[in-house]
Write a structure and sequence with these properties.
336 residues, 3-stranded antiparallel beta sheet, 13 helices, alpha/beta
Protein backbone atom coordinates (compact mmCIF):
# COMPACT_ATOMS: atom_id res chain seq x y z
CA UNK A 1 0.00 0.00 0.00
CA UNK A 2 2.82 2.42 0.91
CA UNK A 3 4.49 1.69 -2.44
CA UNK A 4 1.21 2.41 -4.25
CA UNK A 5 0.72 5.74 -2.45
CA UNK A 6 4.30 6.75 -3.17
CA UNK A 7 3.85 6.00 -6.86
CA UNK A 8 0.62 8.00 -6.95
CA UNK A 9 2.29 11.00 -5.31
CA UNK A 10 5.15 10.85 -7.80
CA UNK A 11 2.70 10.72 -10.71
CA UNK A 12 0.85 13.80 -9.42
CA UNK A 13 4.09 15.76 -9.13
CA UNK A 14 5.20 14.80 -12.61
CA UNK A 15 1.83 15.64 -14.15
CA UNK A 16 2.04 19.25 -12.99
CA UNK A 17 0.23 21.29 -10.32
CA UNK A 18 -3.05 19.83 -9.16
CA UNK A 19 -4.33 23.28 -8.26
CA UNK A 20 -3.61 26.70 -9.71
CA UNK A 21 -1.19 28.93 -7.84
CA UNK A 22 -3.14 31.96 -9.10
CA UNK A 23 -6.81 32.22 -10.05
CA UNK A 24 -7.83 35.25 -12.10
CA UNK A 25 -11.36 36.62 -12.36
CA UNK A 26 -12.50 37.72 -15.82
CA UNK A 27 -15.39 40.20 -15.97
CA UNK A 28 -17.97 39.83 -18.74
CA UNK A 29 -20.91 42.02 -19.78
CA UNK A 30 -22.00 40.18 -22.93
CA UNK A 31 -24.29 37.14 -23.33
CA UNK A 32 -22.21 33.94 -23.01
CA UNK A 33 -23.33 33.02 -26.54
CA UNK A 34 -21.78 36.12 -28.09
CA UNK A 35 -18.80 35.06 -30.21
CA UNK A 36 -16.53 37.58 -28.51
CA UNK A 37 -17.06 35.58 -25.32
CA UNK A 38 -17.37 32.03 -26.63
CA UNK A 39 -14.71 32.26 -29.34
CA UNK A 40 -12.21 34.75 -27.90
CA UNK A 41 -12.43 35.36 -24.15
CA UNK A 42 -13.09 31.75 -23.13
CA UNK A 43 -10.40 30.33 -25.46
CA UNK A 44 -8.00 32.97 -24.13
CA UNK A 45 -8.55 31.71 -20.58
CA UNK A 46 -7.95 28.13 -21.74
CA UNK A 47 -4.74 29.17 -23.48
CA UNK A 48 -3.51 30.99 -20.36
CA UNK A 49 -4.01 27.84 -18.32
CA UNK A 50 -2.24 25.68 -20.89
CA UNK A 51 0.64 28.10 -21.44
CA UNK A 52 1.33 28.39 -17.69
CA UNK A 53 1.08 24.66 -17.12
CA UNK A 54 -1.98 25.19 -14.97
CA UNK A 55 -0.30 27.53 -12.50
CA UNK A 56 -2.57 30.39 -13.62
CA UNK A 57 -6.27 29.79 -14.18
CA UNK A 58 -8.66 32.49 -15.42
CA UNK A 59 -12.37 32.09 -14.73
CA UNK A 60 -15.07 34.11 -16.50
CA UNK A 61 -17.56 35.46 -13.97
CA UNK A 62 -21.15 34.24 -14.43
CA UNK A 63 -22.84 37.64 -14.10
CA UNK A 64 -21.91 41.23 -15.04
CA UNK A 65 -20.22 43.31 -12.34
CA UNK A 66 -21.56 46.51 -13.84
CA UNK A 67 -22.24 48.36 -17.09
CA UNK A 68 -19.78 48.06 -20.02
CA UNK A 69 -18.26 51.56 -19.59
CA UNK A 70 -17.13 50.65 -16.06
CA UNK A 71 -14.98 47.71 -17.06
CA UNK A 72 -11.71 49.50 -17.72
CA UNK A 73 -11.80 50.94 -14.21
CA UNK A 74 -12.71 47.51 -12.84
CA UNK A 75 -9.29 46.36 -14.07
CA UNK A 76 -7.52 49.42 -12.65
CA UNK A 77 -9.16 49.06 -9.23
CA UNK A 78 -8.93 45.27 -9.03
CA UNK A 79 -12.68 44.69 -8.98
CA UNK A 80 -11.82 42.04 -11.57
CA UNK A 81 -8.40 40.81 -12.65
CA UNK A 82 -9.08 40.83 -16.40
CA UNK A 83 -11.68 42.90 -18.24
CA UNK A 84 -12.55 43.67 -21.83
CA UNK A 85 -14.58 46.37 -23.48
CA UNK A 86 -14.89 49.13 -26.04
CA UNK A 87 -12.71 52.20 -25.58
CA UNK A 88 -15.42 54.33 -27.18
CA UNK A 89 -17.74 53.62 -24.26
CA UNK A 90 -15.53 55.97 -22.23
CA UNK A 91 -15.95 59.15 -24.26
CA UNK A 92 -12.83 61.30 -24.46
CA UNK A 93 -10.64 58.92 -22.47
CA UNK A 94 -8.74 57.21 -25.28
CA UNK A 95 -7.32 59.28 -28.14
CA UNK A 96 -5.08 56.72 -29.82
CA UNK A 97 -8.05 54.42 -30.50
CA UNK A 98 -9.08 56.85 -33.24
CA UNK A 99 -6.40 55.58 -35.61
CA UNK A 100 -7.97 52.11 -35.83
CA UNK A 101 -11.56 53.26 -36.23
CA UNK A 102 -11.34 55.51 -39.28
CA UNK A 103 -13.14 54.72 -42.58
CA UNK A 104 -11.86 52.52 -45.39
CA UNK A 105 -9.09 50.70 -43.48
CA UNK A 106 -9.72 47.17 -44.68
CA UNK A 107 -12.17 44.35 -45.33
CA UNK A 108 -10.62 41.85 -42.90
CA UNK A 109 -10.91 42.28 -39.15
CA UNK A 110 -7.94 39.96 -38.74
CA UNK A 111 -5.70 42.13 -40.93
CA UNK A 112 -6.78 45.36 -39.24
CA UNK A 113 -6.57 43.86 -35.73
CA UNK A 114 -3.08 42.43 -36.15
CA UNK A 115 -1.88 45.69 -37.74
CA UNK A 116 -3.53 47.64 -34.90
CA UNK A 117 -1.74 45.59 -32.25
CA UNK A 118 1.61 46.03 -33.99
CA UNK A 119 1.06 49.80 -34.25
CA UNK A 120 -0.09 49.95 -30.64
CA UNK A 121 2.92 48.01 -29.40
CA UNK A 122 5.39 50.06 -31.46
CA UNK A 123 3.90 53.54 -31.06
CA UNK A 124 0.50 54.07 -29.52
CA UNK A 125 1.24 52.67 -26.06
CA UNK A 126 3.71 55.50 -25.52
CA UNK A 127 0.77 57.88 -25.11
CA UNK A 128 0.36 56.46 -21.60
CA UNK A 129 -3.38 55.85 -21.83
CA UNK A 130 -2.99 52.31 -20.51
CA UNK A 131 -0.23 52.86 -17.95
CA UNK A 132 -2.50 51.81 -15.07
CA UNK A 133 -3.14 48.32 -16.50
CA UNK A 134 -1.39 45.49 -18.31
CA UNK A 135 -2.68 45.43 -21.89
CA UNK A 136 -3.35 41.90 -23.10
CA UNK A 137 -4.74 42.96 -26.46
CA UNK A 138 -6.37 45.53 -28.69
CA UNK A 139 -8.33 44.71 -31.83
CA UNK A 140 -11.28 45.81 -33.96
CA UNK A 141 -14.46 44.23 -35.21
CA UNK A 142 -15.18 43.90 -38.92
CA UNK A 143 -15.92 46.84 -41.23
CA UNK A 144 -19.10 48.77 -40.49
CA UNK A 145 -21.58 48.78 -43.38
CA UNK A 146 -24.88 50.50 -44.24
CA UNK A 147 -28.30 48.92 -43.62
CA UNK A 148 -31.66 50.65 -44.07
CA UNK A 149 -35.30 49.66 -44.32
CA UNK A 150 -35.87 51.20 -47.73
CA UNK A 151 -33.81 53.38 -50.07
CA UNK A 152 -32.16 53.54 -53.49
CA UNK A 153 -29.02 51.54 -52.76
CA UNK A 154 -27.09 53.22 -55.58
CA UNK A 155 -27.81 56.85 -54.64
CA UNK A 156 -24.96 59.01 -53.42
CA UNK A 157 -27.45 60.71 -51.06
CA UNK A 158 -28.65 57.33 -49.80
CA UNK A 159 -28.42 58.40 -46.17
CA UNK A 160 -29.77 61.94 -46.43
CA UNK A 161 -32.37 62.33 -43.68
CA UNK A 162 -32.24 58.65 -42.70
CA UNK A 163 -32.44 58.09 -38.95
CA UNK A 164 -29.58 55.72 -38.17
CA UNK A 165 -29.07 53.94 -34.89
CA UNK A 166 -25.43 54.41 -33.83
CA UNK A 167 -23.53 53.57 -30.69
CA UNK A 168 -21.81 56.93 -30.44
CA UNK A 169 -18.19 57.73 -31.21
CA UNK A 170 -16.98 57.65 -34.79
CA UNK A 171 -20.14 55.94 -36.08
CA UNK A 172 -22.09 59.01 -34.94
CA UNK A 173 -19.67 61.30 -36.77
CA UNK A 174 -19.76 59.20 -39.95
CA UNK A 175 -23.56 59.12 -39.98
CA UNK A 176 -23.74 62.89 -39.57
CA UNK A 177 -21.14 63.54 -42.27
CA UNK A 178 -23.13 61.44 -44.75
CA UNK A 179 -26.35 63.35 -44.11
CA UNK A 180 -28.04 60.94 -41.70
CA UNK A 181 -29.68 61.74 -38.38
CA UNK A 182 -27.88 59.75 -35.66
CA UNK A 183 -30.05 57.99 -33.09
CA UNK A 184 -27.87 56.84 -30.22
CA UNK A 185 -28.69 53.68 -28.33
CA UNK A 186 -27.02 50.46 -27.15
CA UNK A 187 -26.82 47.48 -29.47
CA UNK A 188 -29.31 45.63 -27.31
CA UNK A 189 -31.94 48.27 -28.15
CA UNK A 190 -31.34 48.23 -31.92
CA UNK A 191 -34.23 45.87 -32.67
CA UNK A 192 -36.61 47.98 -30.61
CA UNK A 193 -35.50 51.23 -32.29
CA UNK A 194 -35.93 49.76 -35.77
CA UNK A 195 -39.19 47.90 -35.16
CA UNK A 196 -40.82 50.95 -33.57
CA UNK A 197 -39.75 53.28 -36.35
CA UNK A 198 -37.45 55.34 -34.15
CA UNK A 199 -34.62 54.44 -36.52
CA UNK A 200 -34.71 53.84 -40.29
CA UNK A 201 -31.46 51.94 -40.42
CA UNK A 202 -28.13 51.22 -38.81
CA UNK A 203 -24.38 51.26 -39.33
CA UNK A 204 -23.16 47.82 -38.27
CA UNK A 205 -20.87 44.99 -39.35
CA UNK A 206 -22.62 41.95 -40.84
CA UNK A 207 -22.08 39.97 -37.64
CA UNK A 208 -24.00 42.40 -35.46
CA UNK A 209 -26.98 42.68 -37.82
CA UNK A 210 -27.32 38.92 -37.61
CA UNK A 211 -26.57 38.48 -33.88
CA UNK A 212 -29.10 41.11 -32.81
CA UNK A 213 -31.72 39.60 -35.15
CA UNK A 214 -32.13 42.74 -37.26
CA UNK A 215 -32.24 41.11 -40.71
CA UNK A 216 -36.07 41.08 -40.97
CA UNK A 217 -36.07 44.84 -40.28
CA UNK A 218 -33.59 45.79 -43.00
CA UNK A 219 -34.22 45.29 -46.71
CA UNK A 220 -31.28 47.24 -48.14
CA UNK A 221 -27.58 46.87 -47.43
CA UNK A 222 -24.61 48.61 -49.03
CA UNK A 223 -21.15 47.10 -48.77
CA UNK A 224 -18.46 49.78 -48.60
CA UNK A 225 -14.89 48.68 -49.44
CA UNK A 226 -12.83 48.92 -46.27
CA UNK A 227 -15.92 49.78 -44.22
CA UNK A 228 -17.24 53.13 -43.02
CA UNK A 229 -15.77 52.65 -39.54
CA UNK A 230 -14.37 50.08 -37.11
CA UNK A 231 -14.87 49.70 -33.39
CA UNK A 232 -11.84 49.20 -31.15
CA UNK A 233 -11.78 46.77 -28.22
CA UNK A 234 -9.36 46.22 -25.35
CA UNK A 235 -8.50 43.31 -23.06
CA UNK A 236 -6.61 44.46 -19.96
CA UNK A 237 -5.39 43.09 -16.64
CA UNK A 238 -5.00 44.59 -13.19
CA UNK A 239 -1.40 45.78 -12.94
CA UNK A 240 -0.76 44.58 -9.39
CA UNK A 241 -2.11 41.13 -10.23
CA UNK A 242 0.13 41.00 -13.31
CA UNK A 243 3.17 42.00 -11.27
CA UNK A 244 2.37 39.29 -8.71
CA UNK A 245 2.95 36.59 -11.34
CA UNK A 246 6.34 35.00 -11.85
CA UNK A 247 8.45 36.08 -14.84
CA UNK A 248 7.88 32.68 -16.42
CA UNK A 249 4.11 33.03 -16.01
CA UNK A 250 4.20 36.51 -17.50
CA UNK A 251 6.19 35.27 -20.49
CA UNK A 252 3.76 32.40 -20.97
CA UNK A 253 0.73 34.71 -20.90
CA UNK A 254 2.42 37.14 -23.29
CA UNK A 255 2.86 34.25 -25.72
CA UNK A 256 -0.92 33.72 -26.05
CA UNK A 257 -2.05 37.35 -25.86
CA UNK A 258 -0.88 40.48 -27.69
CA UNK A 259 -0.69 39.76 -31.41
CA UNK A 260 -1.92 36.21 -30.92
CA UNK A 261 -5.05 37.49 -29.19
CA UNK A 262 -5.60 40.18 -31.84
CA UNK A 263 -5.31 37.53 -34.54
CA UNK A 264 -7.77 35.20 -32.80
CA UNK A 265 -10.28 38.03 -32.28
CA UNK A 266 -9.95 39.21 -35.87
CA UNK A 267 -10.48 35.69 -37.19
CA UNK A 268 -13.61 35.40 -35.05
CA UNK A 269 -15.04 38.65 -36.40
CA UNK A 270 -14.29 37.59 -39.98
CA UNK A 271 -16.04 34.23 -39.48
CA UNK A 272 -18.99 35.93 -37.82
CA UNK A 273 -19.25 38.54 -40.58
CA UNK A 274 -19.25 35.81 -43.23
CA UNK A 275 -21.99 33.95 -41.36
CA UNK A 276 -23.97 37.18 -40.93
CA UNK A 277 -23.79 38.01 -44.63
CA UNK A 278 -24.85 34.48 -45.55
CA UNK A 279 -27.83 34.74 -43.19
CA UNK A 280 -29.07 37.80 -45.11
CA UNK A 281 -29.61 35.82 -48.31
CA UNK A 282 -33.18 36.21 -49.49
CA UNK A 283 -34.05 38.89 -46.94
CA UNK A 284 -31.58 41.78 -47.04
CA UNK A 285 -30.21 42.67 -50.47
CA UNK A 286 -26.58 43.74 -50.06
CA UNK A 287 -25.01 45.52 -53.03
CA UNK A 288 -21.50 46.95 -53.44
CA UNK A 289 -21.13 50.72 -53.18
CA UNK A 290 -20.87 52.38 -56.58
CA UNK A 291 -17.80 54.30 -57.73
CA UNK A 292 -19.79 57.53 -57.42
CA UNK A 293 -20.76 56.70 -53.84
CA UNK A 294 -17.19 55.82 -52.88
CA UNK A 295 -15.91 59.08 -54.35
CA UNK A 296 -18.57 61.18 -52.62
CA UNK A 297 -18.27 59.44 -49.27
CA UNK A 298 -14.46 59.51 -49.29
CA UNK A 299 -14.57 63.26 -49.77
CA UNK A 300 -17.26 63.73 -47.11
CA UNK A 301 -15.38 61.64 -44.54
CA UNK A 302 -11.88 63.03 -45.08
CA UNK A 303 -12.35 65.73 -42.42
CA UNK A 304 -13.13 62.97 -39.91
CA UNK A 305 -9.96 61.11 -40.85
CA UNK A 306 -7.95 64.31 -40.48
CA UNK A 307 -9.52 65.02 -37.10
CA UNK A 308 -8.78 61.51 -35.81
CA UNK A 309 -5.15 61.76 -36.89
CA UNK A 310 -4.98 65.08 -35.06
CA UNK A 311 -6.42 63.46 -31.92
CA UNK A 312 -3.62 60.91 -31.91
CA UNK A 313 -1.06 63.66 -32.38
CA UNK A 314 -2.61 65.58 -29.47
CA UNK A 315 -2.02 62.48 -27.32
CA UNK A 316 1.72 62.81 -27.93
CA UNK A 317 2.07 60.37 -30.84
CA UNK A 318 2.82 61.29 -34.45
CA UNK A 319 -0.66 60.61 -35.83
CA UNK A 320 0.35 60.68 -39.48
CA UNK A 321 3.21 58.25 -38.86
CA UNK A 322 0.93 55.96 -36.84
CA UNK A 323 -1.64 55.88 -39.63
CA UNK A 324 1.10 55.21 -42.16
CA UNK A 325 2.38 52.29 -40.08
CA UNK A 326 -1.13 50.92 -39.56
CA UNK A 327 -1.88 50.94 -43.28
CA UNK A 328 1.54 49.44 -44.09
CA UNK A 329 0.98 46.64 -41.59
CA UNK A 330 -2.49 45.93 -43.00
CA UNK A 331 -0.98 45.68 -46.48
CA UNK A 332 1.86 43.47 -45.21
CA UNK A 333 -0.57 41.16 -43.46
CA UNK A 334 -2.78 40.87 -46.51
CA UNK A 335 0.28 40.01 -48.59
CA UNK A 336 1.32 37.17 -46.24
Amino acid sequence: MKKMLSSLATALVLSGPAFADTTLTVANWLPPSHPLVSEVIVPMTEQIKEATGGSVVANVLPAPLGPPPAHFDFAINGVADITFGVQGYNAGRFKTTSIAEIPFLGDSAEAVSVAYWRTFDAMLKDAGEYDDVKVLGVFTHGPGQIFVKDADASATDLLDGQKLRVGGGIAHEVASALGAVPVEGPSSKAYELLSQGVADGILFPYESVNFFKLIPQLEVGVSVPGGLYNTSFYVVMNKAKWESLTPDEQTAIDSVTGEALARMAGQMWDRSDAAGLAAMSGETVVTPATDAQITAWTEALQPIVDAKVAEVTAAGIDGAAALEMLKAEISAFEAE
